[in-house]
Amino acid sequence: MSFAEVFIQAIPKLLNGLLVTFYMTAFAAIFGLVFGTILCVWRVYANRLVSLVSTGFIELIRGTPMLVQLFILYYGLPVYGIRLSPLIAALIGFTMNSAAYQAEYIRGAIHSIGSGQMRAALAIGMGKWQAVRSIILPQALRLVIPAWTNEFIYLLKYTSMAYIIGAPEMMAQAKFIASRNFEFFKVYLITAFIYLTVVWIASFFFSWLERKLRIPGTVVGER
Amino acid sequence: MNQQPVLKIVDLRKKYGTTEILKGVSLELKKGETKVIIGPSGTGKSTLLLCINRLVEPDSGKVFLEGEEITPKNVHRMRQKIGFVFQDFNLFNHLTALDNVRIGLIKVQKIRKAEATEIAMEQLKKVGLADKAHLYPSQLSGGQKQRVAIARALATRPKVILFDEPTSALDPELIGEVLSVMVDLAKSGMTMLVVTHELGFARSVADEIVFMENGVIVEQGTPSEIFTNPKTERTRQFLRRLTELYGEERK
Amino acid sequence: MKLIVESLPVLLKGTLVTIELTLAGLTLGLVIAIPVSFFQVYGARVPRLVCSIYERTFRSIPLLVLLMLIFYGLPEVGIKLEPFFACVLGLGLRSSAYQSQIFRGAILSVGKGQSVAALSLGMTRFQVFRHIVFPQALRFSIVPWTNELTIVLKDSSMAYALGVVELLRQGSYIIARTYEPMLIFLLCAAIYLALTIFANRILGFVEKKLRIPGFETREVVH
Lengths: 223, 251, 222
Prior knowledge:
Chain B is α/β, with parallel strands linked by helices. Helix content of chain B is 38%, strand content 24%. In chain B, helix 3 runs parallel beside helix 5 and helix 4 packs across helix 5. The mean pLDDT of chain B is 91. Chain C is an all-alpha fold. Chain C is built from eight helices and no strands.
């Protein structure tokens, strides 16, 4: 088969897979931010026990491969009667994983804000949680935007792992097509090219967005 | 006049690890009084201020505001009555000058936004920055930042304001504008406790000067007593060194 | 418990392969990354452009796609690699992109004033690099490089997909016999965790050894 033939044959399925890839990435990046924020606030500000538990969770996730986490969710949980579809297992896995990493980005941002902000908030009579909510987090979340966009792009690439447990994203589609027409090289090359394009577009888009969103008085620096 | 002190500090002590920063400090401020604390760096002046409203938890000792003891339980309520001005301003970076001043009113005292804005603008006017209300901290000079910080401290109508070396982080040419706001404040009858190296300010505004060293109060008295006739040799040495460093006086 | 004792030797055999993959991939990455980062900082326009396209490309393609391309795709153009070597090549190519980014960043974060001052002493450009820029850049790269090491370590698990009998593959073989997926995968996770902690410790030690007072190489100070 010529390259063009393979391309025409493969592209509809690949783009279908790309949609799933996108969907998983966006889900994990957004919910990862939500849970990551909670984990980080617990780690930094909660009482010792809660802080220890969230620190343990974060380090456990960051210290082990994503693939192992997916296997535990997909192959391990059925031992306890919890059966997840490949897609659900992947969504949970990527979200948990991203939450742990994002918690650390946010923690970095909180440290760079410095303890003076907390002190000043307490000095005008705010409670600790109120200070976290209205002084610390608004600044930290703004500082974390570049890290978040990086995380989005990471996820875009790492979601390809979901194919190993059988989630129907782009990589799985590529494997499916290639195992039928035996044009491995061409199909994977096209897949690589699509990833490349999507990642580049995403990084250009995000750096444009960051410039747009820059608010005077907030340093949106590189991390 | 046998008036109850606005702020009364009784035997405050604080250790960091094994180093004793405060070794039992007692102090009183009457209404409308301005006291200036001077002394070498690292002798616990800042820690003393931070311990007063429990931004740093003291090991022992008591602090009373208008006769009511400040405890971990009531500290949030009490902090609203104690203004604090930091050396490095600590303006909230993500908020405009106006928002910095009114956030305490809105979030802590639950005052309606319109009213809070009015109060905040009034305070900004007082420090001469009404026209900068919508700028962010990064768009202000150091002196302007500190004046906004003073307005923020004033907004909640505190009974006393604590100043922790408010001009130490400023370029020399910006110190004057902050000091003049503080002078006006003292004259208007605000009760103030000021840690500073600005002897000119101390001499012209302070009702009393407190010399602290190594976690204790070495000597206190009126400016003329301290400057012209200090009782201890240590005070004399310190003042001499300071005048050498900072020059005689600054308007 | 008995199962743990029985499967541990097998898993450790897999662990050894994981470590081999990691070290080989990392080394290949290092060998490529040094010239690439050099060309990007000091090179003429064309090599600089080529190198940054190289870096961007291999950072943008998912490792798994790269592995598939190498293992299943390359034979069609006549290059047939063992799964292990295919994996090392994939890990190495991708890591080289990230490592060159690390070194480039480290070199650039040594302030220009340092080079100017050194040149003003009469040093040659090589001497400037050797005595002034390199010692500082080295320290800047330790933390991100450690990070890269643990990433390669964790991502070596993707060799599973090519059938390399590393830690995770050994684990799944045991599971095929014993039907204890939870226990075995948790055991694998524990081994990975131990390895990443160990790696962080060693490089933390190196970092401490090389530390210069007042020379802050970490952005986030805890």
